[in-house]
User: Which sequence fits this backbone?
């Protein structure tokens, strides 16, 4: 009998894991992907949508078209995982049985955790949020703009910095830069989590007259007074607040008693097994691993999980380990970008911003659909492949 | 040895930067005024980051104790 594998989530990690498992195991496995939307979204595109450089349509594709033919798709929400029984309960009453489970349900945005955030602030971490922000930016005629985050972890740590630099360029192009003040509010004592990259972008921000307020963890927003208050006790007045909402794990994880207090899955950093369960794996944003929540993380994790499950099915010793690889681009504006490549042992050493990295990111955006979810890494892109 | 009664202890040893600081910030968010929170960190960056944050956020750094391979920060939520 073929092994039954259920993959929860049809995002970057889930789609790639399912396709790799199907390629590796063929008829030895019956693979089902469960996703309530049935759509796959390319989230890095939200940045471009918010700045009016892309419309929402190219960001989403039908998940079915990205999966290999022999992978089943259940357009359903998983509501409860029973690891001991080896089942997953679905919202509409169904039950799926599995021998192996891959949890790739990503992160959930919880804006209502910060008082006033929903009413007073804008964001670019969801399609609706990015579209709303685009409209607001179109109406914007100048004033004080603040970009901040409401807590760590959040997806793609460089994204707020990237957005800030791109926004500054946008304001210049619109001819309203001199009437605007742009300030990044960082929860840390530098621009963002990664120290070497912060050292690289901070002088660029300074050069472009972008303010940086450090140790500012957004606590509360007063929409009528237009004031942001930090946990550290500082207050800033703002005409346009762009705040990344707090992130948590999905409710299916917490409701099943599997997550930590924030809903992240305790995951072995090398084997990617959910602690305490040999046959349950977690990848992507859903884990509690102390590395960036990014598509590239999910991308490098999926082959490890596919390899491990295939070994367990075949009765051979699983060998693949996840070394903590992450690789992402950081747009610095003015047609330039840099690249961050790192793992558990090696912090990133970003190259000086150059046009080549901007072109590489542009290429990557274009080729994403034909490469990443399908497990075809472009041969021309050695920087996306593992270096170590 | 500290004589202060610790209300919550966080073992952030092995966590890379900025994990220990962010965990402390989370605990301060959730705690009550007067709570004493202890953080164990083996990350070098914590030695500067944690005191700098406490100073900015106007809480009280009760003590920093260097143990074998890690540091223990004891913090009182002051407001
Ligand atoms: C603005 C922005 C910019 C970004 N830029 C980059 C970048 O440049 N580079 C990079 O590498 N990453 C970037 N990211 C991060 C990247 O998009 C995510 O880290 C990545 O999508 C994580 O993949 P995942 O598979 O873990 O989760 P996701 O891709 O989020 O997929 C999770 C899936 O799970 C499904 N799901 C949720 N709940 C359930 C349930 N109960 N049952 C079943 N299915 C469920 C969802 O519908 C979704 O399809 C960016 C993100 C944002 C928001």
Assistant:
């Amino acid at each position: 009998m073929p092994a039954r594998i259920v993959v929860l989530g049809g995002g970057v990690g889930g789609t790639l894991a399912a396709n790799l498992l199907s390629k590796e195991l063929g008829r030895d496995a019956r693979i089902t992907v469960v996703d309530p939307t049935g759509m796959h979204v390319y989230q890095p595109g939200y940045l471009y949508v918010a700045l009016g450089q892309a419309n929402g349509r190219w960001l989403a594709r039908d998940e079915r078209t990205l999966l290999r033919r022999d992978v089943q798709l259940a357009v359903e929400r998983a509501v409860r995982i029973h690891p001991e029984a080896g089942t997953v309960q679905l919202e509409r009453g169904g039950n799926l049985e599995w021998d192996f489970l891959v949890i790739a349900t990503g992160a959930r945005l919880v804006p209502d955790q910060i008082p006033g955030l929903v009413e007073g602030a804008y964001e670019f971490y969801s399609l609706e949020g990015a579209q709303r922000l685009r409209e607001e930016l179109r109406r914007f005629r100048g004033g004080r703009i603040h970009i901040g985050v409401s807590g760590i972890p959040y997806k793609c740590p460089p994204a707020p910095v990237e957005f800030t630099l791109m926004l500054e360029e946008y304001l210049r192009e619109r001819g309203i830069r001199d009437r605007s003040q742009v300030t990044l509010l960082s929860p840390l004592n530098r621009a963002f989590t990664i120290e070497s990259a912060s050292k690289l972008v901070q002088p660029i921000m300074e050069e472009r007259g972008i303010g940086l307020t450090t140790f500012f963890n957004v606590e509360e927003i007063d929409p009528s007074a237009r004031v942001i208050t930090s946990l550290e006790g500082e207050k800033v007045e703002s005409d346009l607040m762009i705040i990344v909402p707090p992130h948590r794990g999905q409710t299916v994880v917490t409701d099943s008693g599997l997550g930590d207090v924030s809903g992240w899955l305790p995951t072995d950093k090398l084997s990617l097994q959910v602690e305490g369960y040999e046959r349950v794996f977690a990848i992507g944003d859903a884990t509690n691993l102390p590395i960036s929540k990014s598509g590239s993380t999910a991308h490098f994790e999926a082959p490890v999980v596919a390899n491990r499950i295939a070994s367990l099915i075949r009765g051979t010793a699983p060998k693949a380990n996840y070394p903590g690889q992450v690789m992402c681009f950081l747009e610095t504006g003015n047609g330039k970008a840099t690249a961050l490549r790192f793992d558990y042992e090696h912090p990133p050493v970003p190259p000086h911003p150059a046009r080549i990295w901007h072109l590489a990111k542009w290429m990557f955006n274009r080729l994403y659909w034909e490469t990443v979810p399908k497990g075809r890494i472009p041969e021309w892109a050695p920087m996306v492949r593992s270096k170590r | 040895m500290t004589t202060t009664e610790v209300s919550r202890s966080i073992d952030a040893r092995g966590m890379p930067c900025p994990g220990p600081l962010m965990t402390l910030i989370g605990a301060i968010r959730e705690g009550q005024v007067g709570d004493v929170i202890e953080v164990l960190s083996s990350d070098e960056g914590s030695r500067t980051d944690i005191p700098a944050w406490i100073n900015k956020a106007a809480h009280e750094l009760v003590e920093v104790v260097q143990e074998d391979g890690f540091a223990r920060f004891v913090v009182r939520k002051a407001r």
Chain B touches chain A at residues 15-19, 21-22, 25-26, 28-29, 45, 49, 52-53, 56-58, 79 (CB under 8 Å). Chain B is about 30% helix and 30% strand. The two ends of chain B are 25 Å apart (CA to CA).
